[in-house]
Amino acid sequence: MNQHSLRNPKVRSGKRNISDIVRQTERAEERLLNDPPPAVWSIPDLLDAIERRMNDRSRSELAAELGLPDYEVRHLVRLVRRLHPEVRAKLELQDLSFGHARTLARLNADDQPEMMANLFRFSWSVRQLEAQVRSTITGDPLKEEPDAADFHRFAEAISQRIGHPVKITPEPGSGKGGTLTLRYADLDDLDALLANAFHLSTDDLLDD
User: Of 40, 96, 99, 106, which has the maximum CB count within 10 A?
Assistant: First the structure.
């Protein structure tokens, strides 16, 4: 920015001119001096602080006053505005993670308690909850995808069937493929693995 821009009150930065930004920053600094944030916020105190301040402060002012990054303030304001009281209470008790709370906040407030009850009943991960919420919002049928525990059970079942260690590793993020790993200790063990799993031997594989 050149010197002329700094002297010209008509120059805009976004929707506000420079003098507006300076006054806003000065107000935030004054509030911060008079009411400094605690070193570590408890969740109830943090949500209460956001709720008391958010209607007459900008997001940048809130971030300065509370000593938090701007993106965290954005998430917190959204939670305060959208969470059903029952869901907020669970979050404040730390029975509910911020990731789960942010996902529940995508639903209408009246739909959140039932979804939260199912979350606790089935011990859904954030990813599983996201799938449930997305299905509720769009009305599309839920696509069931195996989770890590399912793949572990699959591997254990195969291992017991063929008598050799098995590991299944889904390809991250794709949901469509992965790697099946079979382990053996030596060539004799490899022969046993091939016989048990594929009815083959190393000699069969070497035959022309």
Answer: 96
Inter-helix orientation angle 70-82/85-92, to 10°: 130
